[in-house]
Amino acid sequence: MEHQRLFDGSARARCPVSVSTRHSKIGIFRHQVGSSVETVASAPAQDAHLVVMQLRDLPPHDFWADDKRIRMPFTGAGSLGILDLRRESSARFVHPLDSLHVHLPREALDDIAEDAGARPVDDLVVRDGWEPADSLIRGLQPILFEAVRAPENAAPTVVDHLVLAVAAHVAATYGNMRPALQRRSALAPWQLRRAQEMLADNLDKELSLLDIAEACGLSLSYFTRAFKASTGTTPHGWLQTCRVDKARGLLVSGDLPLAEIALACGFADQSHFTRIFRRQTGMGPGAWRRERAVGRSLVSTGSPGAVSPEAP
């Protein structure tokens, strides 16, 4: 029989994805057992909750909370459950396992509630043990999975947004968090200027949104809301627009290959560059460059129908 500690200090250090709040961290990891070896998974008592998203069907199994045995029913892939880690917990499995876990410490939940203008969340409860039809979690689960599977390919700004959105949704849906009515608070001019400068100066790499929020003296969730109120888009959306603007300049000013322009502007690769460029301009970067080159050629040769640069 194999015994696994589900979320102790060593597991926390191995979390491939983590997002900082003001006073804590939200961690995400994958728990996978590929064979039918009998496995006991346990979690030490701590002031936190563990959100479990099943990636495959889970047959009935035994679960213990504070030494009280509970027989858990069949759980389908895509279902969501929440484990209260304030109670000593363990489970015994005799089948393969595959699930994503989101570790939500009490301090992180308090930060989320405070940022929303809500009272602290006392508990997170899923009625009947598992929720099979949480459409938001089901929709985000594939993106979370990819972020955990290949964290080196995940954009920090996107991961920050995603993890905070999941945590806020869980707090509201299963913890009855009720945010206060939000005022449309925008960034102060100096905060907006600092945030945009930090983003624009780091187009070729991803900054953590937490670093930018702290430079503005704000919490992460408040900063992201205020940035969108100020600009009409998210920090990541604004960053992508800046990258496309820089790419336009490089496309018309020289003959750099598209792959080099992609890396110079902070895109993951040429495919990523092409996809974002087409989304914002309506055409791929190669076609955009050729169209501009033809226009410049017509103007310089004075071809019929060309518009003179001096024309109004």
TrEMBL record:
Q: Where is the HTH araC/xylS-type domain?
A: 193-291
Q: Which SMART domains does this UniProt record tie to the protein? A: HTH_ARAC (SM00342)
Q: GO MF annotations for this entry?
A: DNA-binding transcription factor activity; sequence-specific DNA binding
Q: Which InterPro entries match?
A: AraC_XylS_family_regulators, Homeodomain-like_sf, HTH_AraC, Tscrpt_reg_AraC-type_HTH
What is the annotated signal peptide range for this record? Answer: none
Q: Which UniProt keywords apply?
A: DNA-binding, Transcription, Transcription regulation
Q: This protein's superkingdom?
A: Bacteria
Name the PANTHER family on file: HTH-TYPE TRANSCRIPTIONAL ACTIVATOR RHAS-RELATED (PTHR46796), TRANSCRIPTIONAL REGULATORY PROTEIN (PTHR46796:SF14)
Name recorded for this polypeptide = Helix-turn-helix transcriptional regulator
What organism does this protein naturally occur in?
Methylobrevis albus
